[in-house]
Each structure stands twice: as structure tokens, then as C-alpha cells.
Give the backbone structure.
Amino acid sequence: MTHDPKALQAILSEAAPPDLALVFKPMFGGILAYAHGKPLASLSDVGLALKASGALNAEFLAAPGAMALRYAPDAPASKTYVVVPDGMLSDRAALRAWVVKAAAGVAATPAKAKKR
């Protein structure tokens, strides 16, 4: 199924808790969503993919319909982004639970040093 990044932006905005400030920036034909000043989600024709590392990544991938992000069928699978199941896009409560977990994980990671 092909997705519209702008429609995914609206879905993510509605599902996010009100106290989570999201910033959206265009990226290679898609949109990257930031929380806490760090990348949180990739919105592309592939779907809505949330950043998740370690145990959270494994938890998300264990959900039926979830998959590692691949921008093309022959591209390598992302080790940190998980595409949420399509059915979750219409279940705002379930999506919000994932967004809250992903945002907490992003907030806990140290900021990268800026290159000079």
C-alpha cells in the first residue's frame, strides 16, 4: 500500500499526546518528524515509521504487520525505524501508545555533537 506523507503527518499529529511538540521537515520526498529536537518518525510512501532502538525495536517488530523500514524493496532494512502496521493508523489510541514509547526513547538518547 502506498501512503501519502502529508496524510501521515495529520494522523501522527492527531495521535501524539498534546504535550509532545512535533516539528515536521521535508526529507527526500517524504517528511521527518522531530520530537525533543531529534528525529522521531519517517513519513513516506512506505508508511509511518517510528524510531525505536534495542528492546523497544524488538517489541515493535513483534507486532503483527510491523516491519523494519525499507524505502525500496532492495534497500537494506533500517535497524532503528519500524513501520507501524497499517491497521494502527486508524486506531489512534494504539498509535498514541507507540508514539509515547518512541518519544520517550528519543528523549533519552544523548544529542549528537554538531560538526564544525
